[in-house]
Amino acid sequence: MVVHQTIKVAAAVAIKDGKVLIARRASGEKLAGFWEFPGGKLDSAETAQQCIVRELAEELSVIAIPGAELTRSVHRHIELIAVEVRLESEDLTLTVHDRAEWVNVADLTGYQLAPADIPIARHLVGKI
Q1: Closest CA to 9 of 46, 59, 62
Q2: CA distances for 50 relative to 58, 93, 118, angstroms
Q3: Using DSSP, how many helices (H) and how many strands (E) does the chain show?
Q4: 6, 23, 54, 55 — which has fewest CB within 10 A?
Q5: What torsion do the CA atoms of 15, 124, 109, 25 make, to the nearest 10 degrees?
Q6: Residue 3: its pLDDT value, please?
């Protein structure tokens, strides 16, 4: 029997003027073509907030101010931790994504989201 260790991943939920930032994974990347809340794997001694600051600097070249944890989603062996963030700039440089868009929260479920991101999107839609 194969036992998978749960991988903790932080996801940035940046909301501004009723819109939330999502990004589409580029060709050649894992989950290419799927939209997601940007973020990545937590290092061993990292909090979700520390991870989101590091990941957004790496993936989008932007400074993020982390806030509270909003919700968690578990998909297979991934635990996705949604963290509210405020971006210091909207001037994004994409590295692992080919598109980034600010979309109406109500429209989130109309995008082809990565499986672990779907419960987070539903949580956000349920709050509006």
Answers
A1: 46
A2: 13, 20, 23
A3: 2, 7
A4: 6
A5: 50
A6: 63
Structure tokens at 50: 């520390």
Q: How far apart are the first and last CA of the chain?
A: 43
Distance between CA atoms of residues 20 and 17, nearest Å? 8
Q: What is the mean pLDDT of residues 105-126?
A: 94
Burial class (CB in 10 A: 0-12, 13-18, 19+), 6: exposed
For residue 122 the two structure tokens come to 């539903």
Burial grade of 15 (CB within 10 A; 0-12, 13-18, 19 or more) = middle
- Across the chain, the runs of DSSP E, i.e. the strands, are 7-16, 19-25, 35-36, 39-41, 64-75, 78-87, 97-104
Please report which helix (H) or strand (E) contains residue 60, including its range.
Answer: helix 48-60
pTM over 0.90: yes
Rg (CA), the chain: 14
Contact 21, 43 (CB under 8 A): no
- Token couple for 80: 């996705």
